[in-house]
User: What shape does this take?
Amino acid sequence: MSKYIDHLINQSIKGDKKAKQELLIRLKPVILSSIKKYYNRRECICQVKNPPEFN
Assistant: This one.
């Protein structure tokens, strides 16, 4: 899989539009899961830094 993605990247750099589309389709799930992990982690960190006040 890694070799195929490297191939798509090289073809994309050369201007192959189909390779760009295929690359985006293949990487979309990875990108979305990374974004979700980042924001979930950031939320947890914010909650620790700013704990709710108790009366």
Summary: The mean pLDDT is 83. Helices lie at 2-13, 17-49. The chain has one domain: 2-49. Residues 35 and 41 are 10 Å apart (CA to CA).
